[in-house]
Amino acid sequence: MTTLLFTHPVFQRHEVPPGHVEHSGRYVAVENALAHEDFGALDRRIPPEVTAEQIERVHPRKFREAVEENAPTEGLAQIDADTFMGPSSLEATRRAAGGGVAAVDAIYKGDTTNAFIAARPPGHHAEPERAMGFCLFNGAAIAAMHARAHGAKRVAVLDFDVHHGNGTQAAFWHDEDAFYGSSHEWPQYPGTGRESDRGAYYNIVNVTLATGEGSDAFRRAWGEKILPAVSDFSPDFIVISAGFDAHGADPLGGLNLTEDDFAWVTAEIAAVARDKAGGRLISMLEGGYDLSALAASATSHVKALMQA
Protein backbone atom coordinates (compact mmCIF):
# COMPACT_ATOMS: atom_id res chain seq x y z
CA MET A 1 0.00 0.00 0.00
CA THR A 2 1.11 3.55 -0.68
CA THR A 3 -0.12 7.06 -0.09
CA LEU A 4 -3.04 8.19 -2.22
CA LEU A 5 -2.90 11.55 -4.01
CA PHE A 6 -6.13 13.26 -5.08
CA THR A 7 -5.85 15.98 -7.76
CA HIS A 8 -8.16 17.42 -10.41
CA PRO A 9 -7.86 20.14 -13.10
CA VAL A 10 -10.84 22.01 -11.63
CA PHE A 11 -8.67 23.00 -8.66
CA GLN A 12 -6.66 25.14 -11.07
CA ARG A 13 -9.80 26.66 -12.55
CA HIS A 14 -11.33 27.94 -9.29
CA GLU A 15 -11.53 31.67 -10.01
CA VAL A 16 -10.40 34.61 -7.86
CA PRO A 17 -9.73 38.26 -8.77
CA PRO A 18 -6.38 39.29 -10.29
CA GLY A 19 -3.77 39.76 -7.59
CA HIS A 20 -5.55 37.49 -5.08
CA VAL A 21 -3.06 35.37 -3.10
CA GLU A 22 -5.18 32.19 -3.29
CA HIS A 23 -4.67 31.85 -7.03
CA SER A 24 -4.37 28.93 -9.43
CA GLY A 25 -0.57 29.01 -9.32
CA ARG A 26 -0.76 27.44 -5.85
CA TYR A 27 -2.30 24.28 -7.23
CA VAL A 28 0.10 24.21 -10.20
CA ALA A 29 3.11 24.54 -7.88
CA VAL A 30 2.03 21.59 -5.75
CA GLU A 31 0.97 19.45 -8.70
CA ASN A 32 4.25 20.07 -10.53
CA ALA A 33 6.31 19.31 -7.42
CA LEU A 34 4.48 16.03 -6.87
CA ALA A 35 5.01 15.05 -10.51
CA HIS A 36 8.70 14.45 -9.72
CA GLU A 37 9.98 10.89 -9.99
CA ASP A 38 10.38 10.79 -6.20
CA PHE A 39 6.60 10.54 -6.05
CA GLY A 40 6.15 7.90 -8.73
CA ALA A 41 4.82 5.43 -6.14
CA LEU A 42 1.84 7.60 -5.24
CA ASP A 43 -1.56 6.14 -6.09
CA ARG A 44 -3.08 9.04 -8.04
CA ARG A 45 -6.85 9.35 -8.03
CA ILE A 46 -9.61 11.69 -9.20
CA PRO A 47 -11.78 13.09 -6.38
CA PRO A 48 -15.56 12.83 -6.80
CA GLU A 49 -17.90 15.64 -5.89
CA VAL A 50 -19.09 15.52 -2.31
CA THR A 51 -22.80 14.78 -1.87
CA ALA A 52 -25.38 16.99 -0.19
CA GLU A 53 -25.74 14.44 2.61
CA GLN A 54 -22.00 14.46 3.27
CA ILE A 55 -21.84 18.27 3.32
CA GLU A 56 -24.78 18.46 5.71
CA ARG A 57 -22.95 16.48 8.38
CA VAL A 58 -21.13 19.77 8.97
CA HIS A 59 -23.06 22.53 7.15
CA PRO A 60 -26.84 22.93 7.47
CA ARG A 61 -28.90 22.50 4.33
CA LYS A 62 -29.75 26.20 4.19
CA PHE A 63 -26.08 27.14 4.09
CA ARG A 64 -25.23 24.48 1.50
CA GLU A 65 -27.99 25.73 -0.76
CA ALA A 66 -26.87 29.35 -0.30
CA VAL A 67 -23.35 28.49 -1.47
CA GLU A 68 -24.77 26.65 -4.47
CA GLU A 69 -27.11 29.53 -5.34
CA ASN A 70 -24.26 32.07 -5.12
CA ALA A 71 -22.18 30.21 -7.71
CA PRO A 72 -22.15 32.36 -10.87
CA THR A 73 -22.30 31.08 -14.42
CA GLU A 74 -19.97 33.90 -15.48
CA GLY A 75 -17.87 36.49 -13.73
CA LEU A 76 -17.20 36.49 -10.01
CA ALA A 77 -19.47 36.45 -6.96
CA GLN A 78 -18.02 38.00 -3.81
CA ILE A 79 -18.85 36.17 -0.58
CA ASP A 80 -16.85 38.35 1.80
CA ALA A 81 -13.84 40.66 1.57
CA ASP A 82 -11.51 37.78 0.69
CA THR A 83 -13.75 34.99 -0.61
CA PHE A 84 -14.97 34.66 -4.18
CA MET A 85 -16.71 32.19 -6.46
CA GLY A 86 -16.45 31.88 -10.22
CA PRO A 87 -18.07 29.45 -12.65
CA SER A 88 -15.71 26.59 -11.64
CA SER A 89 -15.63 27.28 -7.91
CA LEU A 90 -18.61 25.19 -6.84
CA GLU A 91 -17.25 22.09 -8.53
CA ALA A 92 -13.81 22.81 -7.07
CA THR A 93 -15.01 23.06 -3.48
CA ARG A 94 -17.23 20.01 -3.95
CA ARG A 95 -14.30 17.98 -5.29
CA ALA A 96 -11.97 19.31 -2.58
CA ALA A 97 -14.31 17.97 0.09
CA GLY A 98 -15.08 14.95 -2.06
CA GLY A 99 -11.40 14.06 -2.13
CA GLY A 100 -11.38 13.84 1.63
CA VAL A 101 -14.49 11.67 1.62
CA ALA A 102 -13.07 9.39 -1.08
CA ALA A 103 -9.79 9.07 0.83
CA VAL A 104 -11.71 8.01 3.95
CA ASP A 105 -13.59 5.44 1.89
CA ALA A 106 -10.36 4.09 0.38
CA ILE A 107 -8.74 3.71 3.78
CA TYR A 108 -11.66 1.77 5.20
CA LYS A 109 -11.75 -0.34 2.05
CA GLY A 110 -8.14 -1.32 2.77
CA ASP A 111 -6.54 0.38 -0.24
CA THR A 112 -4.11 2.39 1.91
CA THR A 113 -3.69 3.93 5.33
CA ASN A 114 -3.09 7.57 4.35
CA ALA A 115 -3.75 10.13 1.62
CA PHE A 116 -3.09 13.73 0.57
CA ILE A 117 -5.73 15.88 -1.11
CA ALA A 118 -3.98 18.61 -3.13
CA ALA A 119 -6.96 20.88 -3.62
CA ARG A 120 -8.15 24.44 -3.62
CA PRO A 121 -10.06 26.33 -2.33
CA PRO A 122 -9.01 25.57 1.24
CA GLY A 123 -11.64 24.84 3.87
CA HIS A 124 -10.71 25.30 7.52
CA HIS A 125 -12.15 28.83 7.89
CA ALA A 126 -15.60 27.75 6.66
CA GLU A 127 -17.87 27.67 9.69
CA PRO A 128 -21.04 25.57 9.70
CA GLU A 129 -23.11 28.57 8.55
CA ARG A 130 -20.51 30.96 7.13
CA ALA A 131 -18.08 30.91 4.20
CA MET A 132 -15.01 33.07 4.82
CA GLY A 133 -11.24 33.34 4.52
CA PHE A 134 -11.07 31.89 0.97
CA CYS A 135 -13.10 28.86 2.19
CA LEU A 136 -16.54 27.65 1.08
CA PHE A 137 -17.04 24.12 2.49
CA ASN A 138 -14.93 22.74 5.34
CA GLY A 139 -13.41 19.66 3.74
CA ALA A 140 -11.42 18.55 6.79
CA ALA A 141 -14.48 18.57 9.05
CA ILE A 142 -16.60 16.86 6.38
CA ALA A 143 -14.00 14.10 5.99
CA ALA A 144 -13.80 13.60 9.74
CA MET A 145 -17.56 13.30 10.03
CA HIS A 146 -17.60 10.89 7.09
CA ALA A 147 -15.22 8.59 8.97
CA ARG A 148 -18.06 8.13 11.46
CA ALA A 149 -20.16 6.59 8.70
CA HIS A 150 -17.51 3.85 8.64
CA GLY A 151 -17.73 3.31 12.40
CA ALA A 152 -15.11 5.72 13.73
CA LYS A 153 -16.42 6.91 17.08
CA ARG A 154 -13.75 9.49 17.88
CA VAL A 155 -12.24 11.69 15.17
CA ALA A 156 -9.56 14.39 15.24
CA VAL A 157 -8.50 17.26 13.01
CA LEU A 158 -4.95 18.58 13.53
CA ASP A 159 -4.10 21.93 11.99
CA PHE A 160 -0.68 23.56 11.56
CA ASP A 161 -1.74 26.38 9.22
CA VAL A 162 -0.45 29.79 10.35
CA HIS A 163 -4.10 30.87 10.69
CA HIS A 164 -6.48 29.34 13.20
CA GLY A 165 -9.13 27.06 11.74
CA ASN A 166 -12.12 28.82 13.24
CA GLY A 167 -14.51 26.83 11.06
CA THR A 168 -13.33 23.46 12.31
CA GLN A 169 -13.34 24.69 15.89
CA ALA A 170 -16.92 25.92 15.52
CA ALA A 171 -18.03 22.60 13.98
CA PHE A 172 -16.45 20.58 16.80
CA TRP A 173 -17.12 22.85 19.79
CA HIS A 174 -20.09 20.89 21.17
CA ASP A 175 -19.01 17.42 19.99
CA GLU A 176 -17.30 15.43 22.74
CA ASP A 177 -16.14 12.78 20.24
CA ALA A 178 -14.42 15.28 17.92
CA PHE A 179 -10.99 16.72 18.76
CA TYR A 180 -9.45 19.82 17.21
CA GLY A 181 -5.82 20.76 17.79
CA SER A 182 -4.15 23.81 16.26
CA SER A 183 -0.92 25.77 16.41
CA HIS A 184 -1.13 29.23 14.85
CA GLU A 185 0.31 32.70 14.94
CA TRP A 186 -1.24 35.11 17.42
CA PRO A 187 -2.42 37.76 16.78
CA GLN A 188 -3.42 36.82 13.25
CA TYR A 189 -6.49 36.38 11.07
CA PRO A 190 -9.27 35.45 11.90
CA GLY A 191 -8.80 36.49 15.56
CA THR A 192 -9.96 33.18 17.03
CA GLY A 193 -8.05 30.36 18.68
CA ARG A 194 -7.12 31.67 22.10
CA GLU A 195 -5.56 29.06 24.34
CA SER A 196 -8.53 29.47 26.67
CA ASP A 197 -10.82 28.23 23.87
CA ARG A 198 -11.20 24.60 24.91
CA GLY A 199 -14.60 23.47 23.60
CA ALA A 200 -17.64 22.39 25.53
CA TYR A 201 -15.95 19.09 26.45
CA TYR A 202 -12.32 20.29 26.64
CA ASN A 203 -11.95 18.68 23.23
CA ILE A 204 -10.07 21.59 21.65
CA VAL A 205 -6.41 22.47 22.15
CA ASN A 206 -5.12 25.77 20.74
CA VAL A 207 -1.47 26.77 21.06
CA THR A 208 -0.61 30.32 20.04
CA LEU A 209 2.78 31.24 18.60
CA ALA A 210 4.13 34.78 18.68
CA THR A 211 5.09 36.55 15.48
CA GLY A 212 8.70 35.71 14.66
CA GLU A 213 8.79 32.37 16.46
CA GLY A 214 10.07 29.35 14.58
CA SER A 215 11.02 25.70 14.86
CA ASP A 216 11.70 25.49 18.59
CA ALA A 217 8.39 27.04 19.65
CA PHE A 218 6.47 25.08 17.03
CA ARG A 219 7.96 21.74 18.03
CA ARG A 220 7.36 22.46 21.72
CA ALA A 221 3.73 23.32 20.98
CA TRP A 222 3.17 20.03 19.25
CA GLY A 223 5.48 17.82 21.31
CA GLU A 224 4.38 19.08 24.72
CA LYS A 225 0.74 20.01 24.19
CA ILE A 226 -1.10 19.02 21.02
CA LEU A 227 0.33 15.54 20.37
CA PRO A 228 -0.05 14.34 23.97
CA ALA A 229 -3.61 15.67 24.05
CA VAL A 230 -4.68 13.96 20.84
CA SER A 231 -2.99 10.76 21.96
CA ASP A 232 -4.97 10.87 25.21
CA PHE A 233 -8.12 11.45 23.16
CA SER A 234 -7.41 8.18 21.27
CA PRO A 235 -9.00 9.00 17.91
CA ASP A 236 -10.12 6.32 15.48
CA PHE A 237 -9.30 8.57 12.51
CA ILE A 238 -7.10 11.67 12.04
CA VAL A 239 -7.39 14.44 9.45
CA ILE A 240 -4.61 16.99 8.95
CA SER A 241 -5.38 20.55 7.87
CA ALA A 242 -2.07 21.03 6.11
CA GLY A 243 -1.44 24.74 5.77
CA PHE A 244 2.12 25.67 4.83
CA ASP A 245 1.83 29.42 5.38
CA ALA A 246 3.74 29.20 8.68
CA HIS A 247 6.85 28.88 6.50
CA GLY A 248 9.26 31.76 6.99
CA ALA A 249 8.94 32.83 3.33
CA ASP A 250 5.16 33.12 3.32
CA PRO A 251 3.73 36.60 2.66
CA LEU A 252 0.63 36.13 4.85
CA GLY A 253 2.30 34.68 7.92
CA GLY A 254 4.80 35.88 10.48
CA LEU A 255 6.25 32.59 11.69
CA ASN A 256 9.60 31.15 10.66
CA LEU A 257 9.09 27.45 10.03
CA THR A 258 10.93 25.43 7.40
CA GLU A 259 9.90 22.44 5.33
CA ASP A 260 11.78 20.26 7.84
CA ASP A 261 9.30 21.33 10.51
CA PHE A 262 6.39 20.20 8.37
CA ALA A 263 8.08 16.84 7.74
CA TRP A 264 8.71 16.45 11.47
CA VAL A 265 5.16 17.22 12.56
CA THR A 266 3.74 14.97 9.83
CA ALA A 267 5.86 12.05 11.05
CA GLU A 268 4.81 12.73 14.64
CA ILE A 269 1.12 12.84 13.72
CA ALA A 270 1.52 9.64 11.71
CA ALA A 271 3.04 7.98 14.78
CA VAL A 272 -0.05 8.87 16.80
CA ALA A 273 -2.23 7.56 13.97
CA ARG A 274 -0.36 4.25 13.99
CA ASP A 275 -0.62 3.96 17.75
CA LYS A 276 -4.24 5.00 18.19
CA ALA A 277 -6.04 4.87 14.83
CA GLY A 278 -4.64 1.90 12.95
CA GLY A 279 -2.60 4.34 10.84
CA ARG A 280 -5.78 5.93 9.42
CA LEU A 281 -4.75 9.44 8.38
CA ILE A 282 -5.56 11.87 5.59
CA SER A 283 -4.21 15.34 4.87
CA MET A 284 -5.96 18.20 3.10
CA LEU A 285 -4.15 21.23 1.67
CA GLU A 286 -5.06 24.51 3.34
CA GLY A 287 -2.85 27.64 3.10
CA GLY A 288 0.58 28.42 1.69
CA TYR A 289 1.12 31.45 -0.55
CA ASP A 290 4.80 31.63 -1.45
CA LEU A 291 4.96 29.21 -4.37
CA SER A 292 8.49 27.93 -3.82
CA ALA A 293 7.97 27.46 -0.09
CA LEU A 294 4.59 25.84 -0.72
CA ALA A 295 6.06 23.34 -3.18
CA ALA A 296 9.01 22.48 -0.93
CA SER A 297 6.78 22.15 2.14
CA ALA A 298 4.17 20.03 0.38
CA THR A 299 6.80 17.63 -0.95
CA SER A 300 8.37 17.25 2.51
CA HIS A 301 4.91 16.60 3.94
CA VAL A 302 4.00 13.99 1.33
CA LYS A 303 7.37 12.23 1.66
CA ALA A 304 6.69 11.88 5.37
CA LEU A 305 3.25 10.42 4.63
CA MET A 306 4.79 7.95 2.18
CA GLN A 307 7.28 6.85 4.83
CA ALA A 308 4.67 6.52 7.58
Q: Mind sketching the topology for me?
A:
Blueprint: E1 4-6, H1 10-13, H2 24-33, E2 43-45, H3 52-55, H4 61-70, E3 77-78, E4 84-85, H5 89-109, E5 114-117, H6 139-149, E6 155-159, H7 166-172, E7 178-186, E8 204-210, H8 215-233, E9 237-242, H9 259-277, E10 281-285, H10 291-306
Parallel strand pairs: 1-2, 1-5, 5-10, 6-7, 6-9, 7-8, 9-10
Antiparallel strand pairs: 3-4
Tell me what the structure shows:
- The chain is an alpha/beta fold and about 300 residues long.
- The chain has one domain: Histone deacetylase domain (Arginase, Chain A), CATH 3.40.800.20.
- It contains 10 helices and 10 strands.
- The strands form 2 sheets. The protein has an 8-stranded parallel sheet, sandwiched between helices. The protein has a two-stranded antiparallel sheet with strand order 3-4.
- Helix 9 links the parallel strand 9 and strand 10.
- The protein starts with a strand and ends with a helix.
- The mean pLDDT is about 100.
CATH class: Alpha Beta
CATH superfamily, called what? Histone deacetylase domain
Q: Which stretches are poorly predicted, pLDDT < 50 over at least 5 residues?
A: none
Largest sheet: 8 strands, parallel
What is the share of helical residues?
25-40%
Number of domains: 1
Rounded radius of gyration (Å): 17 Å
- Structural class by SSE content: alpha/beta
The CATH architecture is: 3-Layer(aba) Sandwich
**Judging from the principal axes of the Cα atoms, what is the shape?**
globular
Q: Would you list the SSEs in sequence order as H and E?
A: EHHEHHEEHEHEHEEHEHEH
